[in-house]
Amino acid sequence: TFLIGKVTPYTIEKSYGSDTYGDLLIELAQIFACNCFFNEDGNLVVERDELDANKGSQWDFTTDEFNYLGSGLKYKFSEVYNSVYVIGATINGAIRKYKAQNNNLLDPNSIPNIGFERVYVMEDQNLDTDELCQNLAEYWLKRKTATQNEISILSTTMYHLNVDEIIVLTDISLGLERERFLINSYNIPLKIGGSVTIDAVKSQDLDFE
């Protein structure tokens, strides 16, 4: 419902044969800094990002229950940024732009904690307002910050889980005790009784500036 009445800042054009409807939807979602995915019922969902703290857990995984089959942490420190700078169109001599910075002391990779700013720069001449630049910068800063703590969880098939929702994991062997993770993807096998892979990132709502 968020996109109802919205007008894109430019006409989205795709090529027959080389592009898909999926490419069009992804670009549309990115313009307005939205998440785009298929939910557990197979329906296409395009929605605005919301605070993870407001989301309840869809499942609490522990090593003591049969749904949890194991997991592995992935560290990608080379892909972590604490600042995102979006540069848009130049209109009447003024550049549309916005820089979102992570200055939150709770995050070990924030600018104050590591002592320097690592900037991810995005340029899109189709962004014709500072608001569009700000929405995109804040959207990607959250994801660039979360990249440092990725996890891949193996579980039994659980059809109610959904992308962009919260799960909780307790696995002392990994140093995790009731740690909240945000689901990035959920791969369901075609065969009956197979295990699923849940790719998620550590949930954290930081006070970006």
Please tell me about this protein's structure:
There is one protein chain. This protein is α+β, with helices and mostly antiparallel strands and 209 residues long. The chain is built from three helices and eleven strands. The strands form three sheets. A six-stranded mixed sheet has the order 3-9-10-11-8-4, with no helix packed on it. The radius of gyration is 19 Å and the shape is globular.
- Backbone structural class: alpha+beta
Our estimate of the beta-strand percent is 35-45%
Largest beta-sheet characterization: 6 strands, mixed
Helical run tally: 3
Radius of gyration: 19 Å
Major beta sheet, strand line-up: 3-9-10-11-8-4
What is the count of β-strands? Answer: 11
Instruction: Summarize the amount of helix as a percent range.
Output: 10-25%
Order of helices and strands: HEEEEEEHEHEEEE
Q: Mean pLDDT, nearest integer?
A: 84
Q: Uncertain regions: pLDDT < 50 for 5+ in a row?
A: none
What oligomeric assembly is this protein in? single chain
Distance between the termini: 28 Å
